[in-house]
Design a protein that fits this description.
Rossmann fold; 648 residues; alpha/beta; elongated
């Protein structure tokens, strides 16, 4: 006969009580530890109270004073013990003491003093404790208990003087006389595995020069780092990831190479909180050299725009699309809809996003954005409020060989998604474009420009707010130049560069994604917004930096070879056409490329003609693209060139 549900419930509850209740030995250990700490606190309270009396009467104790002290001492100690245990002061006697612990000691001392004063007034009218004794008792208690609790931390973090310094420890500078620098110093002092002795702080803020942080002086400015390192026999300089701009890191690396000083990077708090990051310092990476000032988002504006909205992202499995999805999760969307035809990409992205934000509704669709019926079904089902259109082909040489596919995936697909956004009353449509759309020399760039023209033209006839965001290369995205160089260096070279003077704008994936979202929130219908990408980087310098950062030498260990400009490529990317005017916005990193908008019917006819040639030979497609985009100057495929090495 099976047991009743009630019997099972009773058994389960009994098991829970058995598991939760501590064993007798554990109870004994807990009470024993509490008693031990109380026995340690009691002599301190006795000494503090006696010292307060001694100071109050300057050591001149007559019999009446001694009598009052003896009468009150026992209950003073008992009350203070009870109050301090109640506030938990008996716990945490270790090196992780902080300011909050001092506040707790002050609260416990104050509360016990109030109780003692009230008890003295009500219960001992004939043996009253002088009021000044209460004040002295309070102050000495805070100092003594705080000092004892801090002793473990003082001993653990104590820096030896220079003449007693352990020779196995490396003398270092910390860059950043701020919260990040102080946190880095604290980490070094507490971590025995980091064999460093911090000599001083380097700052970029003139006002902090000459000050001290946790006893370590702020000794110089950034441009004096290597000179000061030579004077003080410092061999390494430590920075937190993201603390300096890419230009500042490049300057430090170059100066350090000449002065034989190594620059090392420790992970930032964001990286540590984000997942599995090694706490040990690492050498400078190419991402550090290209790092720029962090993006400042208008979070109030973004919350107002994104919260409680259905957000649809096309190309969600790509580098930019997936990062947009991650960034959107910091808000409170009603639903995030992922659309991509990559099954594996969608599978892993969904798992990641559900781990990051388990409470947000995430809907995943495997779909081709050129499939009219499928996309119509998705829009009808989810009814998105905001669409981020990140899906597109991006490899210029491949699109030169497959012009028809570029037309389908970039032009026709964008028209379909824009039309569906208009049809289903989407509030905002954000299209991601490229700097290659400016005075294009490639099929990919000209197709992006045609898509821009259509989105601009449709904006004048729709309640949907159509916005185009234009930016350049994304650092370390799939198939970009950085991972290619990394693979070539790992194989032993050569590293291939197309032209010694070729330059490109670079943005990090998070930076580009954050600015896309910010631009979408602030842009007006029909606008083309351009992201400020800083100064362009010479690809040859990028390759040289990556080789040197790998601990190798250009020419001796790894050769750089010139492979010649590929079809569709140009030496310099541009941010706006000659007919466009750059206007500032309320965000310092977002500009408006102001230009004349095209007629919708004329643009539709042009796209229909282009779409009808999608399966035609490349020459016919290129000719039609040049009719639509007069600025398009097609570069014919160059004859194959023999790669030639570049001298170091």
């Amino acid at each position: 006969m099976s047991p009743s549900p009630r019997t099972n419930s009773l058994q389960i509850n009994e098991e829970r009580r058995t598991r939760v209740s501590p064993s007798p030995s554990l109870k004994f250990a807990i009470w024993n530890g509490l008693l031990t700490r109380c026995l340690l606190l009691a002599p301190v309270f006795i000494g503090v109270h006696c010292l307060a009396y001694w100071l109050r009467f300057e050591g001149n104790w007559d019999p009446s004073i001694r009598s009052t002290l003896l009468i009150t001492l026992s209950w003073v100690v008992v009350i203070k013990l009870v109050v301090f245990v109640w506030f938990g002061i008996h716990r945490g006697w270790n090196r992780f003491v902080c300011f909050q612990d001092l506040l707790a000691i002050c609260q416990a001392a104050s509360f016990s003093s109030i109780i003692l004063a009230l008890g003295d007034y009500l219960l001992l009218p004939n043996a009253s404790i002088p009021r000044s004794v209460f004040l002295m008792d309070w102050g000495i208690t805070v100092v003594s208990i705080g000092g004892l609790r801090s002793m473990a931390r003082v001993l653990a973090e104590h820096d030896q003087p220079f003449f007693l310094a352990n020779p196995t420890r490396t003398s270092v500078f910390i860059v950043g006389a701020n919260d990040s620098g102080e946190a880095l110093l604290r980490t070094i002092r507490r971590n025995d595995h980091l064999k460093y002795r911090v000599v001083g702080f380097i700052t970029d803020d003139q006002s902090t020069l000459g000050t001290r942080i946790a006893g370590i002086p702020v000794i110089g400015m950034l441009d004096e780092t290597c000179q000061l390192a030579e004077q003080r026999q410092v061999s390494e300089v430590l920075i937190s990831a993201g603390e300096l701009s890419g230009k500042q890191v490049r300057d430090l690396v170059d100066d350090g190479r000449q002065a034989n000083v190594t620059l090392k990077v420790l992970p930032s708090y964001e990286q540590l909180l984000g997942g599995n990051v090694d706490v040990k310092p690492r050498t400078v990476s190419i991402e550090d050299l290209l790092q720029r000032d962090p993006v400042q988002l208008n979070l109030r504006e973004l919350h107002h725009w994104l919260d409680n909205q259905v957000l649809l992202v096309t190309g969600s499995a790509g580098s930019i699309g997936s990062e947009i999805c991650r960034q959107l999760l910091q808000f409170s969307p009603k639903q995030v809809v992922l659309v991509d035809r990559s099954e594996n990409g969608q599978f892993f992205l969904e798992r990641e996003l559900r781990t990051i934000a388990p409470d947000i509704d995430i809907c995943v669709f495997i779909a081709d954005i050129n499939d009219v019926m499928r996309m119509n079904t998705i829009f009808r089902e989810v009814r998105p409020n905001i669409v981020f259109h990140a899906a597109a082909y991006k490899h210029v040489p491949l699109m030169e060989q497959n012009a028809g596919e570029a037309v389908k995936n970039i032009v026709v697909a964008t028209r379909l998604l824009a039309d569906l956004s208009h049809q289903y009353d989407v509030d905002s449509f954000v299209m991601i474009s490229s700097d290659k759309a400016v005075n294009p020399t490639s099929v990919m760039g000209s197709c992006k420009r045609v898509a821009e023209l259509y989105v601009q033209a449709l904006a004048a006839h729709s309640n949907c707010r159509f916005i185009t965001v234009r930016f350049g290369n994304v650092l370390d995205s799939a198939g970009s130049v950085v991972p290619i160089f990394r693979q070539q260096i790992a194989r032993g070279g050569p590293v291939t560069v197309t032209h010694p003077e070729m330059k490109r704008y670079f943005m990090t994936i998070p930076e580009a994604s954050q600015l896309v979202i910010q631009a979408g929130a602030m842009g007006q219908g029909g606008q083309i917004l351009v992201l400020d990408m800083g100064e362009p980087v010479r690809i040859l310098d990028l390759a040289s930096d990556m080789i040197r950062l790998s601990g190798l030498s250009v020419g001796d260990d790894i050769e750089i070879q010139m492979a010649g400009i590929r079809p569709g490529e140009k030496l310099f990317e541009e941010l706006h056409t000659d007919a466009e005017e750059h206007l500032p916005t309320s965000h310092p990193k977002i500009l408006v490329a102001n230009s004349q908008r095209h007629d919708l019917n004329h643009t539709l006819d042009a796209i229909d003609a282009l779409a009808s040639l999608a399966n035609a030979p490349n020459a016919a497609i290129i000719s039609e693209l040049q009719n639509i985009v007069p600025q398009y100057r097609h570069s014919a495929p160059a004859p194959s060139q023999v790669s030639r090495p570049l001298a170091a």
